Amino acid sequence: MKASLSMKRAETSDGERGATPTGARARRPSLIDRIGDQLPKIVVAPTFLITLVFVYGFIAWTTYLSFTRSTMRPSMVWEGLRPHERLWGNPVWHTALGNLGTYALLYIGLSTLMGMLLAILLDQRIRAEGALRTIYLYPMALSFIVTGTAWKWILNPGLGIEKLMHDFGFQDFQFQWLVDPDMAIYCLVIAGVWQSSGFVMAMFLAALRGIDGEIIKAAQIDGAGLLRIYARIIIPMMRPVFLSSFIILGHLAIKSFDLVVALTGGGPGNATALPATFMYEMTFTRNQVAVGAASAVVMLMTVCAVIVPYLYSELRPKGGAHG
Amino acid sequence: MASLSIRNVQKRYGALDILKGVDIDVGDGEFLVLVGPSGCGKSTLLNMIAGLDDISAGEIAIDGRRVNELHPKDRDIAMVFQSYALYPNMSVRQNIAFGMEMRGVPKPERERAIGQVAKLLQIEPMLDRKPSQLSGGQRQRVAMGRALVRNPKVFLFDEPLSNLDAKLRVEMRTEIKKLHQRLGATIVYVTHDQIEAMTLATRIAVMRGGELQQLGTPHEIYTRPNNVFVAGFMGSPAMNLIPALVSGGDGGPMVRFSTLDGGAGLALGADLARRVRPGQEVLLGLRPECFSDLGDEHSRGLPTFACTVELTEPTGADLLAMLTLGGVETVARLRPDAAVHPGASAVFAVDMTKAVLFDPASGVRI
């Protein structure tokens, strides 16, 4: 009787040790085990360090530079708000901001509209939908440099549309937006919308496919025509997609640089200068690193103003009374 | 309120026959339940009545007017969907009003109609909420409100209770029945739940594989199923189908079947006896409640047989006894205090006036 009792005790204590990880660690874990436990942290560490230094570190450094006397090379001599005053006293900066306003408004608005229309049309169970979807999505795979160069040729009066129409015999045809200081900014919009609307379309298409077919049937029985169904029921249901596409297109617009460089080079004159091209010019060609850094800080704050409310609304715990 | 007639309606997708010619007439104020297993075509038929699916052949008429070519909105029907299909961006009030708004009903009239329906369905406190803020049962009420407010000729229900939990389902079932009694509306209701069909319908259409198996009142369907499919589908526990042999006897023809203890025979009623001949193989259809133990006063004067009870399942209201008759598992529903015990033999009385016979080859009732 006694023997069997003690045996039982031995068994249970053995079992407990085997079952709990703390018990296993007490038994001198091998080096491999310890590395294994730490592996995820070890793998992530380099990326974390690189991001910390080269993203957040350089943000901090740029912010600091925007308060210094840096000209051609970075300098650590503190100058307070002087570079910011010079930035806001520069008429080209104001032109760039104005251009950004025009460009961002039209680019976001038209891309969303085009993307939504394409998605609605593609959602009508048409033939060869897969192929069409790929065709519309392809521009997103191109770099803005390629888009800019292609559209530079298309819009160039001596090479593109105008020459084509002249060759067709329409000698009076004029299309010179690219070299017209008042219209050149719209060339940027055309190229940008061409590139991005396919991507917006993909987002809208995914959302349209997620709509319960019974809702549409119910609306048909309720007597709504196709147009009404879209206007009153389907498009209002797309609200999250509108928000996502606004965020994505918004930050793309603010940091637009390569498209301008490839398509217009900021010209004619400063007609298509954007904050990003302004920043590049100040920092790397005009030897005014401090002013460039100041403009970069303003851009960062603009992007934050767009992204932070979005992240806040996405990341806060769900379950409130909001529909 | 109106009548609905479905004449030889067929549906084909390419070479696939979904509906193979269905004929049903629904009178004014009737509650027709289409019931059948998944894929039997009942939902397709409902969608065709609604106008959401084309009709390949045949005719559907509402109040004598052919509606085959009419758009759903012109058929004067309302439909309640399984997923409720509420418009998520609109408040409950807007959801209910949407159909009237699309038909150009003036605002004061809309408000009055919404008020009436909200009162009827007790959804007044939630009129300004969004569907996402409602529970399943509340959404179901709103979906019914959206249908009721238009006062259409025919109401269509597509499995409206299958997304609710069991308790709520029973409550809503009762409510739908009350609504039907109060409004006297013509309703076509699709479900795969035979209890819903039995409790709600004034007439049931049992469907399988795109064909109508039987159309009749719940009582007819339950007591005189046309074939073994209907017999097995309707009723829970299902009707027992016992392989048996007809033999001649002193008191007229009997059905003989094997039991675990050998065999047993039961005299056929005069009505059934006329339709069979000795030596014929049949399936004896007995509802579980046809059985009773000898302690039950209903057992007096009924033919009896003895059999070993394999298992008992007390449900509270009844005692279910499992037997093996004719080689198949058979359920007998007895009084809760019936003196039967698993493993022991017991004598059962059988109400043969409620028995039905089927042809084992074709499955059709004899």
UniProtKB/TrEMBL annotation, chain B:
Say which species the protein is native to.
Azospirillum griseum
**Matching InterPro entries:** AAA+_ATPase, ABC_transporter-like_ATP-bd, ABC_transporter-like_CS, ABC_transpr_MalK-like, ABC_transpr_MalK/UgpC-like, Mo/tungstate-bd_C_term_dom, NA-bd_OB-fold, OB_MalK-like
Name of this protein:
sn-glycerol-3-phosphate ABC transporter ATP-binding protein UgpC
**What start and end residues bound the annotated signal peptide?**
none
An annotated GO cellular component: ATP-binding cassette (ABC) transporter complex, substrate-binding subunit-containing
Question: What family does the database annotate?
Answer: Belongs to the ABC transporter superfamily.
What are the UniProt keywords, alphabetically?
A: ATP-binding, Nucleotide-binding, Transport
Q: Which residues form the ABC transporter domain?
A: 4-234
Return the PROSITE patterns for the record: ABC_TRANSPORTER_1, ABC_TRANSPORTER_2
Q: Which GO terms describe its molecular function?
A: ABC-type transporter activity; ATP binding; ATP hydrolysis activity
Q: Which GO terms describe its biological process?
A: carbohydrate transport
